[in-house]
Amino acid sequence: MNKEKILELISKSEDEIHDFKQEWYKSSQHSEFIKDIFSFVNTSHHEDCYIIIGVDDDRNIIGLDENDEKRRSQQQLIDWVRTWPTANNMLPPIEINSLTIDSKLVDVITIKDTNNIPIYLSKRYKGVDAWQIFTRNKDVNTPRNDSANFWDIEELWRKKIFVRSNNTKQVY
Question: Residue 26 pLDDT > 90, yes or no?
Fold first, then answer.
């Protein structure tokens, strides 16, 4: 992860590539966290996405307390994600990095681009229903009590099929 890339993202409004969070998700916000991760995984573009924690919606770098008990390490996050009952056991490809910007600590969750989409749960977990597909359009995620619309889901399948057909030289 590159600091210049994160600074560039902070200089821009939220969009389908990045989102700002003032602080880490509380345990009561697990469903929101899962929805946010899935919304960024389930994109039709071919770019990594970022949740930048320690920055407010007005793009002010607030910073984090490094001793905040809500913070997760890379290992803690991956261990938790592995408990998610995802369909076909497909896990979202994520990593966490910490940066110091203007003497303030910022955590960045990078959601890697993948063609293994859509990713969703096969059974209800932490308040998220099975089979809900979350996506992101501009700076808006699919609502927590809904699923992506038909057209957005169709775009995900096109991304998956197009890449697969180009890699295997098969026509679908």
Answer: yes
